[in-house]
Amino acid sequence: MAMIFKSMSASTSDLSFVRQSCISGNPSLDLKNRAFNFGFCCKGEEKWKVKYGVAKVRATVELGVKKGSNVALEGTLGLDLVSEGELMVKGFRGLRKTKLVCTVGPACSSLEDLEKLAMGGMNVARLNMCHGSREWHRDVIRKIKKMNEEKGFSVSVMIDTEGSQIHVVDHGAPSSVKVEEDSTWLFTTEHFEGSRPFTVQANYKGFSEGIEVGDELVIDGGMACFVVIEKTGNDLHCKCIDAGLFLPGAKFSCWRDGKLVRRNYKFPTLSTKDWADINFGIAEGVDFFALSFVNHADSVKDLKNYLSSKSPKSIKVLAKVESLESLNNLEEIVKASDGIVVARGDLGVEIPLEQIPTVQEHIVRICRQQNKPVIVASQLLESMVEYPTPTRAEVADVSEAVRQYADALMLSGESAIGSFGQKALAVLDMTSSRMESWSREENRQNLLNNHKLGASLPDCITEQICNCAVEMANKLGVDAIFVYTKHGYMASLLSRNRPDPPIFAFTNDESTRMALNLQWGVVPLLVDLSDDAESNISKSVELMKSKELINKGDVVLVVSDVAPTRTTPMALQSIQVKTII
Ligand SMILES: Nc1ncnc2c1ncn2[C@@H]1O[C@H](COP(=O)(O)OP(=O)(O)O)[C@@H](O)[C@H]1O
Ligand SMILES: C=C(OP(=O)(O)O)C(=O)O
Ligand SMILES: [K+]
Ligand SMILES: [Mg+2]
């Protein structure tokens, strides 16, 4: 029995719903009265396929999917469920290039919610070790891994360290507290239980070192502002000069004559707790560490050295740029890291808010020059923590990050504690897809400057091959780029040029696959690769064809890199253009 129906108006999530239900063998799949804008056919009871671009004929059907049938996991293509679904529905050009990171918190930590986020396009799940117990995080990581394994998702896991920073541990109230103009407050390290009005407790004894009478304390980048009126010992007596709010765990910066006062705390970038969290991450097999409050490249190098001796798999290290110091050492930090997080939350405490946009643009540019993935983070859709729609300004901010060709966007509180996490993810998805297609139409990637990376001849050859491959792919308007990669390097060099078509990166290394989830425009696939490059190419083309992911007439540009062997004693890097017949 073959069923075919074709009709109008629905979204990818409907398709995802259908696929998901098939995989979990949900017999109560209810397709009645649901309309779709893609064709759909079910051959026999167990197999089904989706084709895009078919005629619009309205119909409703019921699907007889056998309970427990394993439809999406057949074959060995190693393409994740979500990319496959998107590709079928939207075609090559419809694949979103910008990657999406969601912070997992109490609002989205159930298996069901994690699956919805994965379906909605979450590429990387971030766990912030500032919050929650290690047991809580372990439970979430295991759920994600189980979901990947059993349902065909490919969501990477990132652990974000707590790091050390001065903040307020108590301000006399359990949640936020209002600060009225002219009210006077005591900032102290004296430990007290319960609440004491107009008293805030700092977490570090030397918190007031270098602060003088007349200095201004700016809370959380402008939530409230105080002037220091008296200093007794380590304690500061302050008067509020700009009313606002004190949030739990608020942070502050000190200003004198309109300039930030730099105070030299000797906090280690990685505290004892952070090292314990890193060991925990290694044991749980996470894919990324995001290192908070990196000031120098050395702390990144230390962690990378530690991981190379202690972790059985490759784990990438991202540096979070969120201090003034890190901006001064930016190039060295970018060079030492596997990627960067523009952590605008804390950055906004350390530098004037109005400088954030230019600093962000600068960091994104440096990262692309150095070929390192970059995540733009914090407050992208902050109002969606409470409301179901974003502000127009937030949508404009997201669009700007996409226009700058950042690799990834990140949700924090929106997904961790917000009531509309899935909706916020959908806003990122839609907004980035729209800006990407506009950028393609405008040919904006021509504006990227092609910074030369390689010094040695082999490196220069690889880089040139990738630059030229992208130029060719764009000019020829090919449907897809295929690349075969062990460590992801060639895939990243292609991604750096922000090509029009998607980059399908075939790798036989699971950690490379998970790392590439963060890279702009790359769809990673886990496959068996042999030493024979030609056979790898023909096998993957055949597999894609058999799944009707590529069709007759499609043009694919293939970039391959063959290491010398005993029989062919020379390295061979090539660009081939294949027309599918
Ligand atoms: N694992 C967690 N458990 C509880 N709350 C969390 C967790 N992760 C994040 N949150 C909440 O989400 C908010 C936003 O997350 P994030 O931006 O990562 O942290 P922060 O605001 O501390 O920098 C946090 O303030 C916190 O209230
Ligand atoms: C991403 C950030 O770090 P965290 O949420 O851990 O403070 C930030 O400060 O913007
Ligand atoms: K953190
Ligand atoms: Mg931060």
TrEMBL record:
Swiss-Prot/TrEMBL catalytic activity: pyruvate + ATP = phosphoenolpyruvate + ADP + H(+)
Electron transport as UniProt keyword: no
Gene Ontology cellular component terms for the protein in this record: chloroplast stroma
Cross-referenced Pfam families: PK, PK_C
Domain (Pyruvate kinase barrel): residue spans on this chain: 96-424
EC assignment: 2.7.1.40
Pathway given in the UniProt record: Carbohydrate degradation; glycolysis; pyruvate from D-glyceraldehyde 3-phosphate: step 5/5
SUPFAM superfamilies on file: Phosphoenolpyruvate/pyruvate domain, PK beta-barrel domain-like, PK C-terminal domain-like
Boundaries of every Pyruvate kinase C-terminal domain copy: 463-563
Gene Ontology MF terms: ATP binding; kinase activity; magnesium ion binding; potassium ion binding; pyruvate kinase activity
Keyword Nucleotide-binding: yes
Cofactor: Mg(2+); K(+)
Keywords assigned by UniProt, alphabetized: ATP-binding, Glycolysis, Kinase, Magnesium, Metal-binding, Nucleotide-binding, Pyruvate, Transferase
EC category: transferase
PROSITE patterns the UniProt entry points to: PYRUVATE_KINASE (PS00110)
Entry's family note: Belongs to the pyruvate kinase family.
Protein name per the record: Pyruvate kinase
Gene that this polypeptide is encoded by: LOC101489730
